[in-house]
Structures are given as structure tokens and as C-alpha cells.
Amino acid sequence: MIQVQHLTKIYPNGTRGLDDVNVDIQDGEFVCVIGLSGAGKSTFLRCINRLNDATSGQILIDGEDIAFAQGAKLRSLRRRIGFIFQQFNLTTRLTALENVLAGRLGYHNRFAGALGLYPESDIQLAKDALTRVGLADRMTVRVDQLSGGQQQRVAIARAVAQQPTLILADEPMASLDPKLSNVIMGLLKSFNQDGISVLVNIHVLELATAYADRILGFNQGRLVFDGPPSALTPDV
Ligand code: ADP
Ligand code: ADP
């Protein structure tokens, strides 16, 4: 479970990216985060994973605070969170399989595969994840030879192979053909059904209401809506 308490992020230029946000995410929830551009969605996700540092507040992951954790403690908490970026953030000169393995081991060595440095159990985990996202026949292809949709599926496999309790996805469809939105959301939903909590930033409201158990709405850094899709009214 994730408990966010009084989370505030003030950027060095004085912008309030987040303003006293309080929310608990239960295990296994599928949550979509909505709001206009600049509302704080990305800052919210990035603070949870410590890609951004919060200014104040707490982010408890199964009771342990990641907001100001350091060193080994921070690394161990971050391993429980898979992050999916709008721009995939893959290493394009590596194969799909190597990207997933690099994520799993946090190990960016392009000779590791050739040198057999990956434990067989990790290779199997990575292959299983790539198979789940429909890329069984593309595992040894360099990522720069894959389509955008395939690259995002590699990124999802990389997140899942880490065996996280939580997946954060920051506008994962924004760089893709809208036709692929249901593929990406469907994959996130299928991993959610295995028990992984999912938090997705999304700007297409119809997708949020179609997939989410719960919607968080942000405006100017504040949480202004927290409820099921059925409770959304047209003026939210
Ligand atoms: P969203 O993801 O909803 O579009 P963001 O979290 O990116 O919103 O941004 C929230 C607010 O914080 C916006 O006003 C944005 O301009 C500001 N912001 C985001 N990143 C930075 C930064 N690195 N420095 C200063 N302000 C930032
Ligand atoms: P997105 O929110 O879709 O990722 P943005 O254009 O808002 O794209 O942000 C791109 C990058 O610039 C992000 O790393 C964000 O943190 C940063 N950023 C956003 N707004 C500001 C800002 N007002 N000042 C400085 N950096 C910003």
C-alpha cells in the first residue's frame, strides 16, 4: 500500500508542482491520474519514484518512507516500483531482451549478454515478461528496429520483470498512435489483475474512465478529485 501524506513539491523557481497532496493507494488498485497540462500529474508520479525530490511530506511504501530515504534503503524501495515513461527511455542499441535484463539487474553492460553474465533465472523472467507483452518473436531485435508501440511494450516488460508491487506510467500512450492506447492500457490492466497496483497519468478521459477503478484529478498541484469513474461529473 502507498500512503501519500502532505506531499508538497516546490520547484527552485517557486512553482508549486504539488501542494499538500494526501492519498492512499490500496494494493491491487488501478488508478488513473487526470488533469490539464501543468496540473502536477507528472510531478506526482516522479516524486513517488524519487525521479523528483519532494520538498516536504511522506510517501510510505508498505510503511516505509521513500520521500527522503537514502542509499541502500532508497534503492530497495525503488526496486518495488516499475516506471514507464512517455518516451520509453530504452537503450536503443540494445536488444529487447537486454533492455529488460538491464532493468531487472540495474546493470547496463552491453557485453553482459555475450559474456553470459545474466543468471538463467533472470533471463527466464525477462523472456516471460516479453512473451506476456506479445514480443516473444522480437526478443533479440535491437530496440531501434522496433516500432514505437513495440518499444513501449518492451518498457512495460522491463517494468514488470522487476517484479514490482507498483507500476507508475507517465502518459505511456502520448508518443504513440492513438490506436495503440487500448493495447497499452490492456497490458497494464492484465498485470494489475496479477495484483500489481497501477498508477497511470493520462490525458484522455475516456481511457481513464474505461480502465480505472479510481480516478485522481489534479489542478494546480492540488488533488481536487478522488473517486470512482462513475462519480466524475462533466465539470471536473
Ligand atoms: P503535468 O504532468 O500535469 O503536465 P507537471 O507535473 O509536469 O504537470 O508540472 C506541474 C507544474 O510544475 C507546472 O506548473 C510545471 O510548469 C511545473 N514544473 C514541472 N517541472 C518543473 C521544473 N523542472 N522546474 C520548474 N517547474 C516545473
Ligand atoms: P511533460 O509534462 O509532457 O513531460 P513538459 O514539456 O511539461 O512535458 O516537461 C518536459 C521537461 O521539462 C520535464 O522534465 C519537466 O520536469 C520540465 N519542465 C516542465 N515545466 C517546466 C518549467 N516550468 N520549468 C522548468 N522545467 C520544466
From TrEMBL:
- Specify the ABC transporter domain's residue ranges: 2-236
What are the UniProt keywords, alphabetically?
ATP-binding, Cell membrane, Membrane, Nucleotide-binding, Translocase, Transport
Q: Which residues form a coiled coil?
A: none
Out of the domains of life, which is the source? Answer: Bacteria
Q: What is this protein identified as?
A: Phosphonate ABC transporter ATP-binding protein
Molecular function, one GO term: ATP binding
User: Which InterPro entries would you find in this protein's record?
Assistant: AAA+_ATPase, ABC_transporter-like_ATP-bd, ABC_transporter-like_CS, ABC_transpr_PhnC, MetN_ABC_transporter-like, P-loop_NTPase
Which PROSITE patterns does the UniProt entry name for this protein? Answer: ABC_TRANSPORTER_1, ABC_TRANSPORTER_2
CDD domains linked to this entry: ABC_PhnC_transporter
